[in-house]
Amino acid sequence: MKRALLGAAIAALAMNASAAQAATATGTAKAKILRQITLTNTSDLQFATIISGATASTVAVSTAGAATCGAGLTCTGTTTAANFNIQGTNNAVVLVGGDTSVTLNGSLGGSMTAALSYSATSVTLTNGPGTVGGSFQVGGTLSVGANQASGDYSGTFDVTANYQ
Question: Of all residues in the chain, what percent carry a pLDDT higher than 70?
Fold first, then answer.
């Protein structure tokens, strides 16, 4: 009997020893919600009206909309950079980018390619009149062939905006 009591006492002490070593901690669950990004094109990339020459050349439109007409070409009319507005969560950083080139196909045949340039690789969204947002512009350099075929040329390109 003494052995049984001694065994029970040792078992009780062993249980209390493990309970004395137990510890607890508290964890925290967190979430951050961002508004869905809205991306809107408000103006197109416009290279203006170009009269081609006997040699190939380029027409460049900066992301600010300024044009440079290459040697042998005559450029008239208005040029604009493409403009894109972004709406989302205030103070969030949005990474922007997209296609690096676009092919313009002519209404009467022919095609030309433009290398695209972006005014920024990221935009921080800020409070504005009635909205939270930012913007970026896309310019480009259009390669015009020698005696390029007449016609109205157009092509589409994709841009992206994603939270950092």
Answer: 88
